[in-house]
Amino acid sequence: MVTVRLWGSLGDLAGKTEVEIPATTLRELLQGLEETYPALKPQLERGVSVSIDGKIYNDSWSTPIREDSEVVLLNRLVGG
Amino acid sequence: MPKDEYQSRDFRIVGTRPVRPDGIDKVTGKARYGADMTAPGMLWGAILRSPHAHARIKSIDTSAAEAMKGVKAVITRADFTYQPESASLADVLDNCMAGEKARYDGHAVAAVAATSKSIARAALKAIKVDYGVLPHVTDVDEAMKPDAPVIEAGRVQENVPEGYSENVTGRSQYGHGDPEAGFEKADLVIERHFTTAATHQGYIEPNACLAQLGADGQGEIWVCTQGHYMVRNTCAGVLGLDAGMLRVTASEIGGGFGGKTHVWMEPTALVLSRKAGKPVKLVLSRDEVFRATGPTASSSIDVKIGMKKDGSITGATATYRLQAGAYPGSIAFLSAMCGFAPYDLKHVRTEGYEVMTNRPKAAAYRAPGAPMAAYPVESVIDELCQKLDLDPLETRLKNAAREGTKASYGPTYPAIGLEATLKAAQSHPHWIAPLGENQGRGVACGFWFNFGGDTCVSLMVNPDGTVSLSEGNPDIGGSRASMSMMAAEELGVDLDQVRTVIADTASLGQNEVTDGSRVTFAVGLATIKAARHAIQIMKERAAMTWGIDPEAVDWRDGAAHPAGPNAGKFPPMTIKEIAAIASNTGGPIAGHHEVTAEGAGVSFATHMVDTETDPETGQVKVLRYTVFQDAGKAVHPDYVEGQFQGGAAQGIGWAINEEYIYGEDGRLQNPGFLDYRIPVASDLPMIEPVILEIPNPGHPYGVRGVGETSIVPPLAAIANAVSRSSNVRLTSLPMSPPKVLAAMKGT
Fold first, then answer.
1. pLDDT tens per residue, range B295-348
2. From residue B532, how far is each of B15, B538, B701, B715 by CA, in Å?
3. Entry's SUPFAM superfamilies (chain B) (predicted)?
């Protein structure tokens, strides 16, 4: 199980700011979040970034996640 | 350690300052920008724009315009026959050509293609539009009220609490701990309300394109943009075309700064071309650029910070309300993430609200959301320092985020460079230089994320041993120079043996827009790996020639060498020698790399500025300015310094002069550089850049993005300097002379 920290307004929808998801990759994590917490689906469809051990990922589904990894969901980053 | 992670090394070319490969063409006028391309039979396009801030379009009569000699096509929304399913693409379509209503002053309602510019302009005047004027709202706080005119119903996200107008489309909240408990522990708590004005990116080159679209769905666009793949994909999505049938070529670009990461009128040029059966050139005027291409958001902000007498911040909150213009926005969440990112805080909470108004769709502008996030935070920290008699740099150092700090937006930081920028500021002569009468010194910190994204690079070894490199990102900050330098470094050849070009969309795979300060990081990463791919092939060719195993071949100094005495005694084979026999050893040699780059690494800066406030007029003059920023590794320091200076200059404009001014009628009052005044050279001192190099562990050479962070601190740094020079704390940007004078006189 991976502990995922949600940002505040997303945590409001999930009912808590930290959730446990069985996942070994970024794709499994996103799928698990959507299945376990359907209220998060609109935001997940709009897009998120994910910080894994301090490194921010946007797209790479195969990114490995360890059980003790620090995983933080973020609004999807954009730039100028 | 894997070779694609950072490894300390001595560089031969990276870190030097060679002559810019695009410099001579640009200063001699030979460089080809968006408006410079022509085509046989080309028509001139022109766009009719709404004079109303908010109006229902009852009818459009184009018959008189169509009857004019020289007019080849007139289009309205009815000619955009495809309706995208995606809400974001539907917004782009509606922004390019209004549907049922005009949402802002300047919104496109019809367009013409004609044989000359003058005929096109005259035809616009012959189009009759019957408007039903609607109530409008351009102020962000007014737009949030439940009884505000609604720009579009039904766009509210699930995260918005009840009680607001439907103009409030999104809310995000970040933070940790219990700020209220933190405030209880403070010796002083300051709470302030701030506003910032909408500002335009102010790029010198107006948006321009030349487009051709046939009835068979095949088309081409030559366009000034930060992302020609984005232009291709968006135009295809908006018009229901196959992306592969559109070929888009990026011109040279006269500035973008985020404003050219969007599509504003390219679909219009394509539809005009399709209807007229001819290529159509569309070049916006400066008036149109201001009225109809995205400025950044204006904002309304509340910030509260508690501090102990020793300078420790005990609690912090911020609420950011950003106006997104006429379509749902997505910038306020970045403010909520960035505002307190430089600091190590136990108790912090931020909120961001995205708010629609009757203004042009807000666009990214260099670290979008971050400058207006840092401005109030850094202002209140400075005011706390003033009232508690604390040193502003020492106080920031005391609270600075470091490796292991839990960021205000959630993650734990890896190695970061904020502390280094603060210490560099402390030890710089600027910090102790004497100040005169009416002069003050301000400092502020800033943060930006940076990111990577889809990236493709091809590196061809030509028959004569020279190297052609193709990348897919428009060069807005020296990327051709930087890519050539990294390729030459990796290959071990002279820099003049490598030339980098920006390939069109048919020549490389998908490339993310040139944004997020991503190109030197991500394209550089792909360049290094493409070079390593080519080196591997060349080692195999040398091994084949020598009759040894490829693993027994080393690559150094631009040549293949036997790896050791056991590999055999062979003279080195240079890249030129290997290239010359490529046809005999397996065919042409090319390396390539395709990647979704991740791990860009965050960026921090500290700025220091001296200002003088004229007590008679309230005018603020910038006397001295120093930028301290972490660049990871500066590939071409001239360009890095240019990014530092450019961001600071834009921030100075934002702080002192620049502002979208709307009248009671909801119309923009100052759509031109005469009345919207960006800083010019005579307004600015030499901005001194101080490059710090804390390597990014996620890049082979340690590179970080540098293009955006430099616009984050100036707003507050100047406000803090003005406060110390004039003894007033301004909380509204721009700090124009009337505002400063009124504050100084207490009126």
1. 999 999 999 999 999 999 999 999 999 999 999 988 999 999 999 999 999 999
2. 20, 10, 14, 43
3. CO dehydrogenase molybdoprotein N-domain-like, Molybdenum cofactor-binding domain
Q: What's the average model confidence in pLDDT over B640-655? A: 97
| DSSP-derived pairing of the beta strands B246-250 and B219-223 | parallel
Q: Are residues B571 and B613 in the same domain?
A: no
Least confident of B256-265, B441-450, B595-604: B595-604
Evaluate whether residue B201 is within a structural domain.
no
CATH code at position B525: 3.30.365.10
DSSP letter (8 states) at residue B77:
G
Please indicate, yes or no, whether residues B619 and B733 belong to a single structural domain of this protein: yes
Interchain pair B174, A51: CB under 8 A: no
Domain that holds residue B49: 34-134+206-253+260-292
Q: Where residue B3 falls among pLDDT bands split at 50, 70, 90?
A: low
On whether both B567 and B703 belong to a single domain, the answer is no
The C-alpha atoms of residue B327 and residue B395 are separated, in whole angstroms, by: 40
How far apart (Å, rounded) are the C-alpha atoms in residues B396 and B313?
10
For B458-493, the DSSP string reads EEEE-TTS-EEEEESS--SSSHHHHHHHHHHHHHT-
Judge if B283 and B305 occupy the same domain. no
Of residues B544, B555, B547, the one with CA closest to residue B584: B544
State pLDDT tens for residues B408-448. 999 999 889 999 999 999 999 999 999 999 999 999 999 99
Using a CB-CB distance cutoff of 8 angstroms, which residues of chain B are in contact with residue A42? 157-158
Let me know if residue B9 belongs to a domain: no
- The helix or strand, by DSSP H or E, that contains position B280, with its residue range, turns out to be strand B280-283
In a domain, B676, yes or no: yes
Whether B414 and A54 lie within 8 Å, measured CB to CB = yes
Kindly determine whether residue A56 and residue B600, on different chains, have CB atoms separated by under 8 Å.
yes
pLDDT, tens digit (0-9, with 9 covering 90-100), for B689-731: 999 998 888 899 999 999 999 999 999 999 999 999 998 999 9
Pair (B489, B585) in one structural domain: yes
Highest CATH level, class, for A2-75: alpha beta
Identify the domain boundary among B597, B627, B662: B597
Q: Considering only alpha carbons, which residue of chain A is nearest residue B601?
A: A55
Tell me how far apart the alpha carbons of residues B381 and B395 are, in angstroms, rounded to a whole number: 9
Cβ-defined contact of B368 to A78 (cutoff 8 Å): yes
pLDDT score, position B71? 98
Does residue B646 belong to any structural domain of this protein? yes
- Taking contacts as CB-CB distances below 8 angstroms, the residues of chain B near A39 are 158
Please give the residue of chain B at the shortest CA–CA distance from A57.
B598
Same domain, B423 and B543: no
